[in-house]
Amino acid sequence: MLADLADAETLEKTLRSHSVDSVMHFAADSLVGESVQNPKKYFNNNIINGLQLIEILNELKIRKFIFSSSAAVYGEPETVPIPEEHPCLPTNPYGETKWIFEKILEAFHTIGKLDYISLRYFNAAGADPAGDLGEDHAPETHLIPLVLKAALDNGSVPIFGTDYKTPDGTCIRDYIHVTDLAEAHILALKGLMEGKPSGVYNLGNGNGYSVKEVLETAEIVTGKKIKSYETTRRPGDPARLVASSDKIQRELGWSPKYPELTTIIQTAWEWHRNHPNGYK
Question: Do the strands 172-173 and 209-210 form a parallel or antiparallel pair, or are they unpaired?
Fold first, then answer.
């Protein structure tokens, strides 16, 4: 069933009719550049609509909640890798909405209305190793699928900024395989069901790779020369985001099965090569 998160009547009816006892909340707008250009859209959907969801859950006494948050809450990091206790100073409206919603969850938890775990994603990437599911956005904005589509179509990949304070001047990100990401959600919900405390966890591998390093690795995986061109920075992009995921490994027993960038790109390449037109 498809429905808008803003549709309170359908939302409540759906939750009630399926006897839901826990919710994983992924519904959000998530483009950093767009959030800078259109902050109203992001505050409306990511906060106001999300708050409506929380209110309905309260009415139905649904207490267990897993939230899809983001490394964007940190902004420009003071230390790398970034621990969960690092100050949250987001540099764009998208990150601000994730940070504000985390504070909303904390407030409802404090008054006994909600138990939650917020998972701060770093860069989710890769594809189902079995080959059934992959990454297909419209428009596509994520680096790895853009690089692989360029390899398939003989296209060219934009590099947004080459003057960052990083070894090669391009942004550095921590890439986490989507299968490892999914496993973390299962462990988080299981933890809440077993009475583990509410809180926040980073989801990353602890290794950072620059845009140019991703391009070089993709060329090795695909066996193709991938063209690129340099352009200006995107507003709100931090130079370096790399996670410390020690906390979730220690407290929830999470351990990534696909931590290597080569493996992440290889699974994505297999999917894109077999689905050149996406899910169409």
Answer: antiparallel
φ/ψ of residue 270, rounded to 5: -60, -40
- Stated pTM of the model: 0.93
Q: Fold for domain 21-274?
A: Rossmann fold (3.40.50)
Contact indicator for 45, 5 with CB cutoff of 8 Å: yes
Q: How far apart are CA 271 and CA 43, in angstroms?
A: 34
- Give the pLDDT confidence of 31-43 residue by residue, as tens digits: 888 999 999 999 9
How confident is the model over 220-268, as pLDDT tens digits? 999 999 999 999 998 878 899 999 999 999 999 999 999 999 999 999 9
49 backbone φψ class: left, alpha, beta (φ>0; ψ -120 to 50)? alpha
DSSP string spanning 162-211?
S-SSSTTSS-EE-EEEHHHHHHHHHHHHHHHHTTPPPEEEEES-S--EEH
**Antiparallel, parallel or unpaired: β 22-25 and 64-70:** parallel
- Which residues does the annotation mark as catalytic? 94
pLDDT of 1 over the 70 cut:
no
Q: Considering only CA atoms, which of 273, 251, 263, 153 is closest in space to residue 197?
A: 251
